[in-house]
Design goal:
With about 350 residues, the protein is an all-alpha fold. It has 18 helices and no strands. It is globular and about 50 Å long. Bound molecules: magnesium ion. Magnesium ion binds near residues 55, 56, 57, 96 and 268.
C-alpha cells in the first residue's frame, strides 16, 4: 500500500469511527424497540440539536494513533506511551469510561506497570483502539498482532479481548485493501490464538451466513443478543460489526445506519463499523452532512485528519513523528460541558416515549 493510499485509509478510519461514534452516542444503552421512537429518519446527529459529539471510542482511537506515530510502532515504547495517554485521559474526567478500562487506568496511576494493569474483562475497550492499528500496520502481520496485544492487555486481560480486537484490526486492514472476507480473517485468528478464538469464529461465520442471506444487521443482533441490543461483550460487538461490514462493505451510510439501529452499545458498535468501512471508502465516502454535524473540540475531525497524516508519514519514513497535541486542560473543560450534555440526555430518557 502506497503512502498516499495509507494516509487516505487512516483518515477514513479515524474520521469514519468518530462519525459513527457521534451518531450512535445519543442512543447508547437504549433497547432497539424504544430507540426506534427516538431515532431520526434518515439518521442524523441528535446529541445537541442537529450536532453530535464523540465519546471514549474516538478518544481511544486518537490516543492509539498518536502513540503509534510518536514511537514508530515499537511495541514496548508504544505501550508506555499509550499507558501515559490513558492516565492523562482519565484525569481529564471523561463522561463515558468502561468499568474495566477505568479500573485498569487507576491501577496505572497507582504505579502498576503496563504489563500488569489490565483487569480480567472481555469488554469493548480494546476494540476501540484496534482499527487504526490494523490500517497503519496491516502489511506486517506479526507487528499488528504485537501492537494489538500490547494495546489490549493494558486494560483487558481476558484473552478474548485481544482476539476480538485483533479481528477488528484485521477487518480494517482488509477493508483498506478493498477486501471484505471475515471468514478468511477468522483463519488468521485461529492460527494466532488457537482455541481461545473458537467462540468468536463461530459467531463470525454466523454473521457472514446471515448477511449473505440478506438478513438485516438489527435482525442478526436481535437473534444474537436479545432485545436489549448489542451488548458490551467484545464477541457480540465484533460479530455484529462483521455483519454490518459484510452487508455494506462500500456503503458507509447503510453500514452505520444498520449498526445504530441495533440499539444497546450503539456508539462503540457504530464506531467500529465506521472505522472499518471508513478505511475502505475514505472521507469522500462518508456523507458530508454527517461530517459537518460533528462539533467537537479539541478532538475535532480536523484534528483526527492531522493525526492520520502524521501517522502515515511516520510509517512512510519508518521514524517517530510527533503528533499534534490534545491539551489536557482543554480536554478537561470540554469534558465538563460534555458531562452536562450527557446528564441532560440521561434525564430526558426518564420521560416518554418508552
Ligand atoms: Mg463510547
Amino acid at each position: 500500500m502506497g503512502g498516499m493510499a495509507r494516509q487516505e485509509a487512516l483518515t477514513g478510519c479515524l474520521v469514519g469511527g468518530a462519525v459513527g461514534d457521534a451518531l450512535g452516542l445519543p442512543l447508547e444503552g437504549i433497547p432497539p424497540q424504544r430507540a426506534r421512537k427516538f431515532r431520526r429518519s434518515p439518521l442524523r446527529h441528535a446529541l445537541v440539536g442537529r450536532w453530535g459529539m464523540v465519546s471514549d471510542d474516538t478518544e481511544h482511537a486518537a490516543m492509539t494513533a498518536a502513540a503509534l506515530a510518536v514511537t514508530a510502532g515499537e511495541p514496548f515504547l508504544f505501550t508506555r506511551r499509550l499507558a501515559r495517554s490513558l492516565r492523562g485521559w482519565l484525569a481529564s474526567l471523561p463522561a463515558g469510561c468502561g468499568l474495566a478500562t477505568g479500573r485498569a487506568i487507576l491501577k496505572l496511576w497507582l504505579g502498576f506497570p503496563p504489563q500488569r494493569s489490565g483487569v480480567w474483562s472481555a469488554g469493548n475497550g480494546p476494540a476501540m483502539r484496534a482499527a487504526v492499528i490494523g490500517v497503519a500496520w496491516g502489511d506486517q502481520p506479526q507487528q499488528t498482532l504485537d501492537l494489538v496485544r500490547a494495546s489490549s492487555v493494558l486494560t483487558h486481560r481476558d484473552p478474548k479481548a485481544t482476539v476480538g480486537a485483533h479481528a477488528v484490526a484485521l477487518a480494517a486492514w482488509q477493508a483498506a485493501q478493498g477486501v471484505c472476507d471475515p471468514v478468511a480473517l477468522g483463519e488468521t485468528l485461529r492460527a494466532d490464538h488457537g482455541g481461545v478464538a473458537e467462540p468468536l469464529l463461530e459467531l463470525i461465520e454466523r454473521a457472514v451466513a446471515s448477511a449473505d442471506a440478506r438478513q438485516s444487521t438489527p435482525e442478526f443482533c436481535h437473534a444474537l443478543c436479545g432485545k436489549g441490543g448489542v451488548t458490551g461483550f467484545i464477541d457480540h460487538t465484533v460479530a455484529v460489526a462483521m455483519h454490518a461490514w459484510r452487508a455494506f462493505p462500500e456503503d458507509y451510510r447503510q453500514a452505520v445506519e444498520g449498526a445504530v439501529a441495533c440499539g444497546g452499545d450503539t456508539d462503540t458498535l457504530a464506531a467500529v463499523v465506521g472505522g472499518i468501512v471508513g478505511a475502505r471508502v475514505g472521507v469522500a465516502g462518508i456523507p458530508m452532512g454527517w461530517c459537518q454535524g460533528v462539533r467537537d473540540w479539541p478532538r475535532s475531525l480536523g484534528y483526527l485528519t492531522r493525526l492520520a497524516a502524521v501517522l502515515a508519514s511516520s510509517r512512510s519514513l519508518g521514524q517517530p513523528v510527533v503528533p499534534p497535541r490534545a491539551v489536557w486542560l482543554f480536554c478537561f473543560v470540554r469534558n465538563l460541558v460534555f458531562l452536562a450534555i450527557v446528564l441532560v440526555h440521561g434525564f430526558r430518557r426518564l420521560l416518554p416515549p418508552y
